[in-house]
């Protein structure tokens, strides 16, 4: 006999949305979460020593065309504030910094032409990719047989053009272009409305932030579920057969008709499944490594970069912090810079310890904003690779061969086991919006299957 | 206080050699094994219904230049029998089968020329690879940024030449060339004495088999360790600090000065480490997926292929069983064909169930050996992807980017945690010989560090 109708593994956004929808349909649900908090890769942290200030240490931005997450935010009265602010952005490639405004990048004419022709080729290739089933189609095998780096080398004719695409890959995936297949990059771009859309503030993927922080979404969802969200219960084993599922954690077993596993595939492999999972699934979870991110926040008494008519948005090919945004809370007076340290930079920075990481990141800011950048009121950083229950951000990035060989196993339920999470989304794969839609899909699956 | 000096996780060949050497040095050791048997990826199975016949369902062959495993076999009086037998081998590419003898492959002159020039280029590139540290060197980054498939497409000028290298990749790694970096393939080849050496019987990697089966090595090693090998104890958690380690399984905790983890990296990630592991290690274990193998044995009353002057060794580009060897035990009278189903073929065959797999494999044999092949005395198969405690064979194959970004973490101890296993070997990486040498290395590491 089942304790509940549905068990959800993981109290990130995908898991909480799943549970919320199951409850809304009048069925019973329990969410088992390994951590002592909800939110998964969304995490809003209070900045120590700075009154009333919190920062998003995890997922931050929403796009105008992310209807799933926008609807969910609106439901709880959560408002957004535009990312784009006054002043110029900065782009620094090979030691040369240029200002720019709007969506245009400050590249010299030759590089602009090179990036432009490559972008057109990329967009044309992306047209061949099926977002619902990227493993399908005439071109899929060819695109999946090569790295994105191979494509960059073949397609760009200038070294700065190649650098630009490498930087773009790190900014979008938090991993280097040799680590993913061309197909994966094409899929992610198409899944999120195009490569340029993914790196754009006004109107793009970084269009707006959630006032008060993104984690509130998870907190409101969890509050609605009350005691049915059980923290600090890492799931060790899932037993499943024709009669039901039995999900084991240290505190014992919970039984249900269905289970929805919402943790990233690389973590889902730590759960023991009895009986074991199908072959393609067993392979797939071995081939979805995470990118690496250390997300840093430097807090200043005011956004002093406005003195130079700079917006605080910066992109540089010199690490460790290659992507910077001004995330000052509107009306707070404080100046906050979010520095994204990604890929190899993140792996190396994380290994160096917090104090040295702070110095390295602040020096990078000072390079463009002057010595005032070296002396923030506060500095906080979150190293997602060090998180036992995440092991890298933003999410899973597929190496060559994985999508076409075993990608079709990503969302297919295994008997009574269903899968959700940002990685399983067709649209906005890897984003909070994808997490929300994946939870809705998984909830619909289990509700249709419940007796 | 430590219960024992050293804990070894995993009773495969690497783990048992580690424990054997630690005991030989007069120190105490316990081996914790998840399965109800020793041997890991070595497994000698009795064939049901056929008197006195057993087959190697796992690792099988030894090469003349594999001194580590040869010494170990000799120690227990285990003998080998040559793989190469009388008769011609068969190679079938694109529907055309040709006989050949010795090391020469039966390719048409144009394909031979193409494969020849590509082999020379491959060998020249392999010269640049450092087997001790493949992540080092001027060429490493370039080789690691592309798939082996990209290299094949660029280097071979004929479609049959490309097919040949793809087949060779599957035979050596049990995965397709788009799934690994060029650097990985170069490293594996160099680690085992060259690409041709890896696919050669007489004098090469398939030079000889162990009479009575390869698993005996593990069984003899385990017998010497007696009750210090504890079966059915999957390790869940390893706690480690400056004072020692505490290794947890269902039956409780065992403490020691040092622990040697010998399970493949993709499985080592299922163990919880407290505190967590360094970043490069956390990344690396997410990027060492296993190949896929279903190893089949068809047993006949006699080796009837000798009637056609065929040796039973066959290579074909038509699946599911692309690589076939005669492994008839000398003097037994039986004719035994070992059919290796690898990579994508293995994933698909394994999903089809045993009965249909049998038919598909036997049909492949009958294609070249006639209808007698369809009616064996017995047919056994072992699907390594379905094994909870292996999850794919022969072993880990690294996708692009992994070696150069995080490969240096492969063997580096983390405090009191040491690493062994075939994947950690410099010479004969992924082979039983590499498992033996890795155990010797790990034992030397912990012995030098013990108080």
TrEMBL record, chains A, B:
<protein>
    <submittedName>
        <fullName>FAD-binding protein</fullName>
    </submittedName>
</protein>
<feature type="domain" description="Amine oxidase">
    <location>
        <begin position="13"/>
        <end position="447"/>
    </location>
</feature>
<comment type="similarity">
    <text>Belongs to the flavin monoamine oxidase family.</text>
</comment>
<dbReference type="GO" id="GO:0016491">
    <property type="term" value="F:oxidoreductase activity"/>
</dbReference>
<dbReference type="InterPro" id="IPR002937">
    <property type="entry name" value="Amino_oxidase"/>
</dbReference>
<dbReference type="Pfam" id="PF01593">
    <property type="entry name" value="Amino_oxidase"/>
</dbReference>
<dbReference type="InterPro" id="IPR050703">
    <property type="entry name" value="Flavin_MAO"/>
</dbReference>
<dbReference type="InterPro" id="IPR036188">
    <property type="entry name" value="FAD/NAD-bd_sf"/>
</dbReference>
């Amino acid at each position: 006999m089942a304790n509940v109708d549905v068990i959800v593994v993981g109290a990130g956004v995908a898991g909480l949305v799943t549970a919320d929808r199951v409850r809304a349909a009048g069925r019973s649900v329990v969410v088992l979460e390994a951590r002592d908090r909800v939110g998964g890769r969304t995490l809003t942290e209070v900045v120590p020593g700075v009154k009333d200030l919190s920062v998003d240490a995890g997922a931050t931005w929403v796009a105008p065309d992310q209807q799933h997450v926008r609807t969910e935010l609106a439901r709880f009265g959560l408002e957004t504030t535009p990312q784009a602010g006054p002043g110029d952005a900065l782009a620094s490639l090979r030691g040369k910094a240029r200002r720019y405004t709007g969506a245009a990048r400050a590249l010299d004419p030759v590089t602009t032409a090179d990036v432009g022709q490559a972008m057109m080729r990329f967009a044309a290739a992306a047209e061949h990719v099926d977002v619902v089933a990227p493993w399908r189609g005439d071109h899929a095998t060819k695109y999946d047989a090569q790295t994105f780096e191979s494509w960059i080398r073949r397609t760009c004719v200038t070294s700065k053009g190649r650098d630009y695409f490498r930087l773009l890959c790190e900014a979008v995936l938090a991993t280097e272009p040799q680590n993913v297949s061309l197909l994966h990059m094409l899929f992610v771009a198409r899944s999120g409305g195009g490569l340029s859309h993914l790196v754009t503030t006004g109107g793009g993927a970084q269009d707006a932030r959630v006032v008060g922080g993104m984690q509130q979404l998870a907190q409101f969802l969890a509050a609605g579920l009350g005691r049915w969200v059980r923290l600090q219960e890492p799931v060790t084993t899932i037993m499943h057969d024709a009669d039901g599922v039995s999900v084991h954690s240290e505190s014992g077993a919970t039984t249900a008709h269905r289970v929805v596993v919402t943790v990233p595939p690389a973590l889902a492999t730590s759960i023991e499944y009895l009986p074991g999972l199908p072959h393609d699934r067993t392979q797939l979870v071995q081939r979805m490594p995470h990118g690496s991110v250390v997300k840093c926040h430097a807090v200043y008494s005011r956004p002093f970069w406005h003195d130079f008519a700079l917006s605080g948005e910066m992109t540089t090919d010199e690490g460790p912090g290659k992507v910077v945004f001004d995330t000052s809370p509107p009306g707070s007076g404080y100046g906050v810079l979010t520095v994204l340290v990604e890929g190899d930079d993140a792996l190396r920075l994380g290994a160096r310890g917090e104090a040295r990481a702070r110095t390295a990141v602040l020096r990078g800011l000072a390079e463009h904003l002057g010595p005032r950048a070296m002396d923030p009121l506060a500095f906080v950083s979150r190293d997602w690779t060090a998180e036992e229950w995440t092991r890298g951000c933003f999410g899973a990035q597929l190496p060559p061969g994985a999508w076409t060989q075993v990608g079709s196993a990503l969302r297919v339920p295994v008997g009574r086991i269903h899968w959700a999470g940002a990685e399983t989304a067709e649209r906005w794969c890897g984003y909070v919006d994808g997490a929300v839609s994946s939870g809705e899909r998984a909830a619909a699956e289990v509700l249709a299957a419940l007796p």
